[in-house]
Amino acid sequence: MAxxxxxxxxxxxxxxxxxxxxxxxxxxxxxxxxxxALGAAYLALVVVPFAVRxxxxxxxxxxxxxHEGRAPTEAEVTAVLRAPLRxxxxxxxLWMVGAAxxxxxxxxxxxxxxxxxxxxVAFGGLVTATFTYLVTERTTRPLAKAALATATTKVRxxxxxxxxxxxxxxWTMGSAIPVIGLVLVAIFSLADPADxxxxxxxxxxxxxxxxxxxxxxxxxxxxxxxxxxxIIALRRATERLGQGDLTTRVEVSDGSVLGxxxxxxxxxxxxxxxxxxxxxxxGRQVGEDVARGTLERGTSLGGEQREVxxxxxxxxxxxxxxxxxxxxxxxxxxxxxxxxxxxxxxxxGGWVNKFQGDATLAVFGAPEPMPDAADRAxxxxxxxxxxxxxxxxxxxxxxxxxxxxxxxxxxxxERRFEFTVIGDPVNQAARLTELSKERTPMLLAxxxxxxxxxxxxxxxxxxxxxxxxxxxPHPTRLAVPTDQHPR
Length: 487
What we know:
Elements: H1 2-19, H2 28-68, H3 74-109, H4 112-139, H5 141-150, H6 163-191, H7 198-242, H8 257-286, H9 288-297, E1 302-315, H10 318-324, H11 327-347, E2 351-356, E3 359-364, H12 373-391, E4 397-412, E5 417-423, H13 424-436, E6 443-446, H14 447-451, H15 455-458, E7 461-467, E8 476-481
Parallel strand pairs: 4-6
Antiparallel strand pairs: 1-3, 1-4, 2-3, 4-5, 6-8, 7-8
């Protein structure tokens, strides 16, 4: 910034002495000495103290969190983001005050110099201040990212000029002011044709035209990059998000509408990630099919009648197990037990409706209809009877299979409900499970389930008399597996 302002001073002096048209200065030595003295005094007495004061205020208001190693407050974030704008305003004020002082001084020395000095200092100051703003905004962007990343509050409002303001600022300082200078030169030349030679006008046009091309292009480039870089980062992040990377985030590096857009993208990505976690959690709790169906059906209570096969699995002696072993060991055993059950139910296309303490209720034929529900349920029961004694020998479990008509749907209240299956097959499977615990293997199925299965599955079962199950008005015909180790 110091270099930019020094270059601005050199350009202003060169323009006053050699570029702008006008009559010769009467006492060049006296004018130069007076301006040099005023410049040194202005620098020592005004510019340096003002700059030091601004730095101290900024350190108190926006930079203290850096030295203290903590997250910035809302006011400190604002101070960081507004630092380029404040430097721009400070530079404009210093240059405009300088223009006024030098105009008064040169009016005393020679009235001819007033217009050239006033216009040139003001012109150089505005252009220099613009580049001070654009360069400072770019160089302090890492600091702005750090402030916005560690701040305890979000970007909720614009705290810097927006895209349109920045674009117009760059255009005004890089193009409009030099063009105004060309217009003023033309006016001065028309007002005093004697002093406006072809050579002086040519030099003036070349210099001001070069300023338009060089500084205008530079200002436009800096302003365009300040807008384009965050947008490019957002586009790339959007592509990653569209490809399924829900952890994608962008650095919030701006306090304008672009910063709001960056923060909004991060909020959106966070919401999508959270929704996906909830969906995954819900799917694990109720099953993917139920979760998908719930989104389609909505929250209405009630259900539909389905022909379902039910597999009920219950651990034997769970009360004694909980009383004689540590709770953590019991949980580990149950998790291993449920892991085998879920694995087989999923492998056969069923749905684990619920875990009831140490028991599992699995359903085939709901929520989606399943024409071979009985085959899948019976095959699952045989596989569980084979795997559980081998893989979880510490736990014995009874298994019951039933088939019939039931209602599958949302049961509960409007504020709290669950998707479940209610009907005679559920109760019958639970009763068969209790009865199976007295047999070897501990697996019983109802004759209705076996008769509803295909011949391929029925060959693995044989009928084994009738029994009266608690709560059922008629005896239930039983079926047992034909071998203890079914394939």
